[in-house]
Amino acid sequence: MGRNDCGDRPATDGGATVVVEPGPEESLTRAILRGVAALKGVAERDLDTLYESVDVEALKSVIRHANARDSRVSVEFIFQGCTVLVESDETVRIAENRPPRSEMYPEQS
After folding, report:
1. Which of 15, 32, 40, 59 has a CA between 20 and 30 Å from the CA of residue 6?
2. CA–CA distance, 109 with 102 (Å, rounded to integer)
3. What pTM value is reported for the model?
4. 3-state percent helix, strand, coil for the chain, nearest multiple of 5
5. What are phi and psi of 74, to 5 degrees?
6. H-helix or E-strand containing 37?
C-alpha cells in the first residue's frame, strides 16, 4: 500500500502519481501546491513555500521560452519529498517517490 506522506521510504506499490493542469485563473505555482497537497493528503497551507525548493520565476521563464519557440521541455525537481515534473504545456506530474522518468513521462519512452 502506498504512503501519502511522500517520505523517503518507498511505497510498497510503487507510489502514487497525480497529474495536475492549472485552471483558467490558476497559477502554475498554485497548481503545483494543489497537486502536492492532494497527494500528501494535507492542506496547501501546511506545505513549505515552493520558493524554497525551486526558483519559480526561472521555471516560468523556461516554460515561456520553450512555448515561444514551439519546443517541448520538462523541468523536474523535488518538493516536500515528492518528485515534481513540469512540462512545457504546464501539465504537472507529481510522484510520491522517484519512479523512473519513463513512468512519469511515458510519451518519451
Report:
1. 59
2. 6
3. 0.73
4. 35, 20, 45
5. -140, 145
6. helix 28-40
Mark 42-68 as b/e (b = at least 16 C-beta within 10 Å): eeeeebeebeeebeeeebeebbeebee
User: In a 10 Å sphere around its CB, with 0-12 CB exposed, 13-18 middle and 19+ buried, how is residue 18 labelled?
Assistant: middle
Q: Would you call 3 helix, strand, or coil by DSSP?
A: coil
pLDDT tens column, 60-92: 999 999 999 999 999 999 999 899 999 999 899
pLDDT of res. 84: 94
Amino acid letter, 53: S
- Whole-number Å distance between alpha carbons of 75 and 41: 24
How many C-beta atoms lie closer than 10 Å to residue 71's C-beta?
9
